[in-house]
Specification:
Largest sheet of chain B: none
Shape of chain A: flat
Number of domains of chain A: 2
CATH class of the largest domain in chain B: Mainly Alpha
Distance between the termini of chain A: 39 Å
Radius of gyration of chain B: 25 Å
Helix content of chain B: over 70%
Low-confidence stretches of chain B: none
CATH superfamily of the largest domain in chain B: MetI-like
Oligomer: heterodimer
Number of helices of chain A: 14
Radius of gyration of chain A: 27 Å
Structural class of chain B: mainly alpha
Number of domains of chain B: 2
Helix content of chain A: over 70%
Largest interface: A-B, 63 and 59 residues
CATH superfamily of the largest domain in chain A: MetI-like
Largest sheet of chain A: none
CATH architecture of the largest domain in chain A: Orthogonal Bundle
CATH class of the largest domain in chain A: Mainly Alpha
Mean pLDDT of chain A: 82
Strand content of chain B: under 5%
Low-confidence stretches of chain A: none
Order of helices and strands of chain B: HHHHHHHHHHH
CATH topology of the largest domain in chain A: MetI-like fold
Mean pLDDT of chain B: 83
Shape of chain B: elongated
Number of helices of chain B: 11
Number of strands of chain B: 0
Number of strands of chain A: 0
Chain lengths: 369, 295
């Protein structure tokens, strides 16, 4: 049994590393010694990963090699954007391939449960995200992509940290006022109308097809009308959010209330339960997964609705306003900072809902282990 | 439960609710337009009978809330009485939006399918990429629509493609997520059967996984095409009202032409319904042909 176990990522990485030697130093200001150091680290990482070693040794070596080389490559770009040679990119590709190898080793053979610790299921996507940022930073700065086209993540981060007061004001205007109010009112009315419609068969029969149809319509188009009706401030955005979130909630709640089987309903009837008792104790419980589905859909829709509605007219604050004006002024880093803010808010919102869902619908089969 | 009747369980309830909506619309049109009309009459020093006043609230040129018949006549005028290729025609604008939608939808669907196939076959992609796809659903992607348009026009890409790219961006998520589910839907028995045939990955994909995923494919395409239309409409906003349904909305909001906005909205809705219905019908047809049970 040979001590070597080649894998294609490491082999390709070695090839790229060797190729990168043809164009030293990597950038105009990068110390040749550092370039050599990056090459040595990469080669060592690739070789260790091909040894028949324990996976802990492999992951450590791969992590050190890929991130160490990436760090050297990023540092080497200081004051030298746009001067990267072909060797620089070859080394970057080599580092990325080692990163990929690391993810592959961590993911195991794909059989779920073999290695599916919580830690791994967080680490692997996190590694992917970090690599996207590293590649973005190195390619944009290394190739000298104009700032107005695509700013590097570091500049976006700096801008984010540097304009916290503006971002906070936009957050207050768009999220705390328009989105939250519209989301709560829209979802609640959708829910209540569904409960009422469910009491009267006739209503439900009429509302369900209409609701299904309206859910597919480009409701965002009502934004200009709402701006004309309710003015430029947050009220018009909240109105858009209310209309956009109402129908998904209505349709999903109606579907959820119909989700119980005949057996359960018959059981409730043998208990002599009234309509409201059946609703509260059986059907609403069964409808919870559907309701949470609507709440999750709505969390995205609400943010989109409020931001796009701001394109049609706002006071001089708000995330959508900032995005449209800063695009016009070619301040792309500010735009990206707002998008990062929107992404963080959207993910937190969604994450909070998912946590709440787990506690409320703990009985659902999808959480069984 | 007695048998379902289309007229009693579908047509009558839906029809009566639509009727209620129509009546509510007229009431809203009256009550929202009345203050302006009252103000207008007071300044002009005119006194009107109730019937006259009612008529006037329904025929304002720039009403706060246009009455249904105003919207209908605007739709009629801009659809059937002008040449379909003239700039005033809603058919022209709908076509512009529709072409961007379809291009974006085609690209998005293709991308989604490719990503799904990748995720199903490469464990590393499954672990590292799928969580990001789901997370990206929580990000208001439309927020970057204006930026994409401006960026692409800065490097010389204008016209159909930027809008289509936004549609692509919006429509590939539902397809990717739905197809991952669909490609994983064959149960272990069937996969084992393929293994006893010593089928390779490609054969398993082509003969088992893809046929099994067809119902999922069409369900996710229905979501994707609706999202794609929204993407195309929003993509038309920052181009400065050149052509398309989105530009009609923007122009209407600049000049407070509420009737125009409503007409454009309805045109957009008609396009949406046509698209979703088409996907639905094709889906039913294909599913029946492939031997799925009709529901």
């Amino acid at each position: 049994m040979s001590a070597f176990r080649p894998n294609w990522q490491a082999l390709l990485s070695l090839l790229a590393t060797i190729y990168s030697l043809t164009a030293l130093p990597f950038t105009a200001t990068m110390n040749p010694a550092w370039s050599i150091a990056a090459v040595v680290i990469l080669a060592a990482g690739a070789l260790v990963s091909m040894l028949r070693a324990a996976s802990s040794i492999q992951t450590t070596a791969l992590a050190l090699a890929s991130f160490g080389a990436a760090a050297l490559l990023i540092v080497g770009l200081a004051d030298a954007s746009g001067t990267a040679t072909a060797g620089y990119f070859a080394a970057l590709v080599a580092a990325w391939l080692l990163g990929w190898r690391l993810v592959t080793v961590l993911s195991g053979d794909g059989s779920r449960g073999s290695q599916s610790g919580n830690l791994i299921s967080i680490t692997v996507p996190a590694l992917f995200g970090i690599w996207v940022l590293i590649l973005w930073e190195c390619i944009v700065r290394g190739a000298g992509v104009p700032f107005v086209l695509l700013p590097p993540p570091s500049a976006i981060g700096l801008r984010f940290a540097g304009s916290l007061p503006i971002l906070a004001a936009d957050f207050r205007q768009t999220v705390l006022k328009a989105v939250l109010f519209g989301y709560v009112v829209g979802s609640l009315t959708g829910f209540l109308v569904a409960i009422l419609a469910d009491r009267f068969r006739f209503f439900a029969n009429g509302l369900l097809p209409i609701g299904n149809m309206v859910s597919a319509l480009p409701m965002i188009g009502i934004a200009p009308i709402m701006v004309i009706w309710f003015g430029f401030d947050w009220q018009s955005k909240a109105a858009v959010v209310i209309v956009m979130t109402f129908f998904p909630m209505l349709v999903n709640t109606l579907a959820g209330l119909a989700a119980t089987g005949d057996m359960e309903r018959d059981l409730m009837r043998t208990y002599g339960a009234s309509h409201w008792q059946v609703l509260l104790k059986l059907r609403l419980q069964a409808a919870m997964p559907f309701i949470f589905n609507a709440l999750k859909i709505n969390s995205t829709l609400a943010l989109i609705g409020a931001i796009v509605a701001e394109f049609f007219g706002t006071p001089i604050v708000g995330m959508g306003f900032r995005i449209s004006t800063e695009v016009g002024r070619m301040n792309l880093d500010m735009v990206w900072a707002e998008i990062a803010l929107a992404a963080v808010v959207g993910s937190l919102f969604y994450g909070a809902l998912a946590l709440l869902e787990r506690t409320v619908t703990f009985w659902h089969p999808s959480y069984r282990r | 439960m007695n048998e379902k009747s289309f007229i009693r369980d579908r047509l009558v309830p839906v029809g009566s609710i639509l009727l209620v909506i129509l009546i509510a619309w007229y009431v809203a049109a009256y009550s929202m337009n009345a203050p302006f009309q009252r103000d207008f009459d007071r300044r002009a020093g005119e006194t009107r009978t109730t019937a006259e006043f009612l008529m006037l609230t329904m025929t304002q040129p720039k009403p706060t809330m246009p009455a249904p018949h105003q919207v209908a006549s605007n739709l009629w005028k801009n659809t059937f009485t002008v040449k379909p290729w003239s700039k005033r025609s809603l058919v022209y604008h709908s076509w512009i939006t529709l072409s961007a939608t379809l291009l974006g939808f085609a690209m998005g669907t293709a991308l989604g399918v490719v990503i799904a196939i990748g995720i199903v076959h490469v464990p590393a992609l499954d672990r590292s990429f799928l969580p990001w796809i789901i997370a990206s659903q929580t990000i208001p992607i439309l927020a970057i629509a204006p930026m994409i348009i401006v960026l692409l026009s800065a490097i010389g890409v204008t016209g159909l493609l930027p809008k289509a790219l936004i549609s692509t961006y919006l429509s590939f998520f539902p397809v990717a997520v739905g197809m991952v589910k669909g490609l994983r839907s064959p149960d272990v028995l069937h996969l084992d059967l393929m293994r006893t045939y010593s089928a390779d990955k490609l054969q398993t994909l082509w003969k088992l996984r893809i046929p099994a995923s067809v119902p999922f494919f069409f369900t996710s395409m229905k979501v994707a095409i609706a999202a794609s239309l929204i993407g195309a409409i929003v993509g038309e906003l920052p181009t400065g009202a050149v052509a398309g349904i989105g530009s009609k909305l923007l122009a209407g909001s600049y000049y407070s032409q509420t009737v125009d906005i409503f007409a454009a909205l309805i045109a957009g809705s008609v396009v949406a319904i046509l698209l979703v219905t088409t996907v639905d019908i094709v889906g039913r047809f294909v599913n029946t042909r492939m031997g799925a049970r009709s529901q």
